[in-house]
Write a structure and sequence with these properties.
The complex is a heterodimer of chains A (about 325) and B (about 375). Chain A has helices at about 1-5, 10-15, 25-35, 40-65, 75-90, 100-120, 125, 130-150, 150-170, 175-190, 200-225, 235-255, 255-275, 285-305. The mean pLDDT of chain A is about 85. Chain A is about 80% helix and about 0% strand. In chain A, helix 13 packs antiparallel against helix 14. Chain A has 14 helices and no strands. By secondary structure, chain A is an all-alpha fold. Chain A is flat. Chain B has helices spanning about 1-5, 10-15, 25-35, 40-65, 70-90, 95-120, 125-140, 145-165, 175-190, 195-200, 205-225, 240-265, 275-285, 290-305, 310-325, 335-355. Chain B has about 375 residues and is mostly helical. Residues about 1-5 and about 230-235 of chain B have low confidence and may be disordered. The chains are: A mainly alpha (about 325), B mainly alpha (about 375). Chains A and B meet through helix 2, helix 3, helix 4, helix 13 and helix 14 of A and helix 2, helix 3, helix 4, helix 10 and helix 11 of B.
Chain lengths: ~325, ~375
């Protein structure tokens, strides 16, 4: 309760600047409102000691066994891997563990699956950092990701999936299509299961690389100056479909940041097309960009004013 | 939500300062300008990026058509830099601030082009002039994005400027010196926040922007790995190692100062010395093995103490990066690394149980 009552730094500064508070009163209000309080500090320390202790011990043991790996018999190696994983997974089933602790333990265990492959299997030394390795990692943690339903764990999963897809296809088309599909599925999930909805920051984390990759790839294919990227109408249609679907969704959900992303993305793709059409002559793309930018800003200001009383997401 | 939260702001403020006379309208105006209101960041982002793309295209188009000379570049630089100052000093709107920052960036690039095309200045002189212009621009403007970008740019220009003077045989020695000065600056800005607030409250926002700029500049320094050292290989001890060791000592002194300051503040709340000073200090000692870890850990704790969300998140991400990077540190064997981690892990878990077992006086 006390935390909710505190003034923000911005509020406190505004009050200090436009009131008759003396320097002593300002100093006292700063000490009361801004720095961390004793109980908050104690809670934080407990959390950091637990998480830090478990993580440091885990990684210390991984390093220790990696160092002595050659000298260990095969049965020991097998046992070591299982001991690590069980060491992180067994506490999840303890009745006193909080949900956050369980989520963190499974996230560290999921990370360890890959680390154990990499360190003990010495995948990184043999140059075998391939999609098979990622696919196996994903397959092994997929059930944990689904059961725990923890946003950072999902992000780890998507990160691995993107690396695997890029490794397999050797280009970003599959990566951004995957990310757009994830955004669509997340929105559907949030509608169907609002009690277990994914947070807005999670959506932005998935959506931003989707737009960046799709814009970069489409612009490169249009300009045609990359040997990795050849223009393809089907791919272009998929890009337009993804952006249009996301734009519609953003308007429906009143999300301003995705609209801003799309505005810039379409502007960059339009520039690429105009530069290609006018044979690298830049004056027309420059004027077109100025026009589109002005329209976009006014459109965004209009949306902001229209939405701002009814929605908190930016 | 933001609007709903401030439905009755004046009454809420009065609860905290019942005897103070407030100019409520001006407080609200200040809040409207500085607050993170709905959608403002999305708009700032579009304006800033859009300005850069548009001006970049126009600049390139003019170059294609006319191949302009030095005079044109000077004209553009003067126009945009003066425009930034006028906009930032006269209009207090977040979108105009973003536009002004875009103009300043293009103006600075034009100035660099103009100075180089003159053929009268060498690299070092151009760097010096640009550094001076950026510092003046930041001091005059004092706006959010411009200050942060200006401080980061100043950090790197200062590094290249000093490095070109060949003070030392080792590459990047001067970088270490500049980083140490910036660490000093960051420490001062964190520790003096309360003093600035009580005595120079009109400079609070600017000092915050400076703090974030200095922190991001140092983040870029550590992430780009200019701090790497061979501390464990004593046989080839050189000036780079001495400087990195000095940087660690500097960070350690700041850590002691910060934790003692927190102890003095928190002892009224019955938190014992070992929790407030000894415990974070033991955590901090991990930084002996990697000055990168020391920096991010100290920054994380410093921002946590002063409840700065941006610093906490950036510090935490930097810390994760630093620990991962430590795995690839070739100056320590896996055995040494493992023993350090196991020892610290056992220590922290022990302290966790001790902390749980020990009841506080008010409990």
């Amino acid at each position: 309760m006390e935390k909710e009552k505190r003034l923000s730094r911005t509020e406190l500064t505004a009050i200090a600047n436009h009131s008759d508070l003396t320097p002593e009163q300002k100093a006292r209000s700063y000490t009361e409102q801004i720095p961390i309080h004793g109980e908050e500090y104690r809670q934080f320390l407990k959390w950091i000691l637990l998480v830090g202790g478990i993580s440091l011990l885990g990684f210390g043991l991984v390093f220790f066994f990696a160092f002595n790996w050659r000298d260990m018999p095969a049965s020991w190696k097998f046992t070591t891997v299982w001991v690590f994983l069980l060491g992180f997974l067994v506490p999840v089933f303890l009745p006193k563990s909080s949900q956050l602790t369980k989520n963190l333990l499974v996230t560290v265990a999921s990370l360890l699956v890959g680390v154990l492959f990499a360190v003990f299997g010495q995948v990184y030394q043999t140059g075998a950092f391939t999609y098979q390795y990622i696919a196996l990692w994903l397959a092994l943690i997929a059930a944990w990701v689904l059961i725990m339903h923890f946003a950072p764990l999902w992000i780890l999963f998507h990160l691995l999936a993107c690396v695997g897809l890029y490794d397999y296809f050797d280009q970003y088309f599959a990566v951004y299509v995957y990310l757009f599909v994830v955004v669509a599925l997340t929105v559907v999930w949030n509608e169907v299961k609002p009690a277990k909805a994914f947070p807005y920051w999670y959506l932005l984390t998935v959506l931003t690389p989707a737009i960046v990759f799709s814009t970069a790839r489409t612009s490169a294919t249009i300009l045609g100056d990359s040997f990795l990227a050849r223009f393809d109408w089907t791919e272009f249609a998929v890009f337009i479909f993804c952006e249009a679907a996301l734009f519609g969704l953003a308007l429906y959900k009143k999300w301003l940041i995705p609209v801003a992303h799309i505005a810039l993305s379409l502007m960059v793709v339009m520039d690429a097309k105009l530069i290609a059409v006018y044979h690298d002559n830049l004056i027309i793309p420059a004027f077109a960009t100025l026009l589109v930018l002005t329209v976009s800003i006014f459109f965004l200001i209009y949306l902001r004013n229209f939405w701002k009383n009814g929605k908190s997401k930016a | 939500m933001e609007n709903q939260k401030h439905d009755q702001p004046a009454e809420r403020w009065k609860q905290f300062f019942p005897d103070a006379v407030m100019e409520t309208a001006r407080v609200e105006k200040d809040l409207n300008y500085h607050g993170a209101h709905f959608g403002i960041r999305a708009l700032e982002y579009v304006v800033f990026m859009g300005t850069l793309i548009t001006l970049g295209l126009f600049g390139a188009a003019i170059y294609q058509i006319a191949e302009p000379g030095t005079g044109f570049y000077f004209f553009i630089a003067l126009l945009f830099l003066a425009g930034t100052v006028v906009l930032h000093r006269t209009v207090h709107k977040r979108l105009i601030d973003a536009l002004g920052t875009g103009l300043a960036l293009v103006g600075t690039v034009s100035l660099i082009a103009a100075l180089f095309s003159l053929d009268t200045f060498n690299d070092r002189e151009v760097q010096g002039i640009i550094l001076g212009v950026i510092v003046i621009l930041v001091l005059v403007s004092r706006k959010n994005l411009l200050t942060i970008l200006g401080v980061i740019a100043s950090f790197w220009i200062l590094n290249w400027l000093l490095e070109s003077r060949d003070f030392s045989e080792d590459r990047f020695d001067t970088f270490r010196l500049v980083a140490m000065i910036f660490i000093l600056l960051l420490g001062a800005l964190v520790c003096l926040e309360g003093f600035i607030f009580s005595h120079y409250s009109r400079l609070v926002h600017f000092s915050n922007y400076l703090k974030h700029g200095v922190f991001l500049a140092l983040c870029s320094y550590f992430v780009l790995d200019f701090d790497s050292w061979s501390w464990s290989r004593w046989t080839t001890f050189n000036s780079a190692k001495w400087l990195t060791l000095a940087m660690y000592v500097e960070l350690l002194l700041f850590a002691v100062l910060l934790f003692v300051w927190q102890y003095r503040r928190l002892k009224r709340e019955h938190l014992p010395l070992w929790i407030v000073v000894l415990l974070p200090l033991s955590l901090f000692l991990l930084g002996f093995f990697s000055v990168k870890i020391a920096f991010f850990l100290l920054a994380f704790l410093a921002f946590l103490f002063t409840r700065s969300l941006f610093g906490i998140i950036t510090g935490a991400l930097g810390l994760i990066y630093a620990v991962i990077h430590f795995y690839y540190e070739l100056n320590w064997t896996l055995m040494q690394k493992s023993l350090v981690f196991i020892g610290l892990g056992v220590l922290y878990l022990g302290l966790f149980f001790l902390l749980n077992a020990k009841k506080m006086p008010h409990e």
